[in-house]
Amino acid sequence: MPQAGGAAYRPGMSRHVIRPFAEADLPAAAGLLAERHREHRKRHPLLPAEYEDEQVAVVEVTALWESESASGAVLLEGDELTGYVLGAPKPSPVWGPNVWIEAAGQAVREPEHIRDLYGAAAAKWVDDGRTAQYVLVPDDAELVDAWFRLGFGSQHAHAVRPAPTTRLEAPPGLTVRRGTRDDIAVLAELDLVLPQHQGQSPVFSAGELPTLEEALADWEESIDDLDYATFVAEYDGRVIGSSVGCSVDKSSAHSGLARPDNAGFLGYAAVLPEARGRGAGRALGEAVLQWSADTGYTAVVTDWRVTNLLSSRTWPKLGFQQTFHRLHRLIGY
Ligand SMILES: CC(C)(COP(=O)(O)OP(=O)(O)OC[C@H]1O[C@@H](n2cnc3c(N)ncnc32)[C@H](O)[C@@H]1OP(=O)(O)O)[C@@H](O)C(=O)NCCC(=O)NCCS
């Protein structure tokens, strides 16, 4: 069958044809994405229902397709589109010379086919120098395994849980309360704790470490911002940790079909190193869960670096279930 849109090739002996993604593929790709999302929601009903509708899913795929320097591939079986992948770079320098496959950037009937699709699409990405590659994969074990066999490994977890329905209280000896202007000095100190921790082994994150002065200035400006709920934990009359809750809409990392409806967001938490392991992290996380329930949210979202040995163990204990894996591959070595 003749193919439009450039080089088509047939992997192996199958009747599959792979060719570059084209605008005319958007409706069929959206149909597949809606199908994928219906399966995903069977495991995670808190993910937004609207994207089960291909008329809504098409908006997401179209936005990706229209983003700067987007490209990808589709797989056809006969006349039917049964897989696609779409990637585009993010401008921020923190990700390196990158390409991202976002939550709406892939769907396949057969997980193994993502390897053929990536094989076709990645040639251009690497030719363009985009050697730092990121992909958001639903927690479908076969799909994750297929990406694993493309050289990708786990970097980050996206997770959700229902808002609590019974009241959560801090353990004896620990007080959790709202942060006030009087707490600014320790809040600023605690703001450095996460980037400091994540700069070390085994996270080795390249995230920027603010100075104490910058953190102080930030808190001076934002402490009264009603869109954010700040909590501090006190032990023996001294603040040892903080957490921040807000609407998930404030987080660009959670968007489209990876953003649960009506959800609160556990956006930050840190406990001073010498005070860890006494339940303060749990109590601070639970303060944000309780605030989310009191605010009327039905779900709570958070995310973590999977190489962060502390957060990756703490948040699942608080009932968060992983919905998406962000996988990463660095090419060239
Ligand atoms: C993540 C962090 C806030 C947790 O605070 P903490 O006071 O040490 O945690 P807690 O003592 O309340 O423990 C919370 C739960 O996680 C578990 N947990 C915590 N650290 C653990 C570890 N190293 N190994 C196994 N389980 C661990 C605890 O057993 C506890 O579960 P339980 O209540 O069911 O027993 C804290 O470790 C921290 O500040 N880390 C550095 C910054 C950071 O990673 N922040 C999170 C941003 S995403």
From TrEMBL:
This is Ribosomal protein S18 acetylase RimI-like enzyme. InterPro entries: Acyl_CoA_acyltransferase, Bact_Acetyltransf, GNAT_dom. Residues 174-333 form the N-acetyltransferase domain. Gene3D superfamilies: 3.40.630.30. One of its GO terms (molecular function) is acyltransferase activity, transferring groups other than amino-acyl groups. Keywords: Acyltransferase, Ribonucleoprotein, Ribosomal protein, Transferase. The keyword Transferase applies. GO terms for cellular component: ribosome.
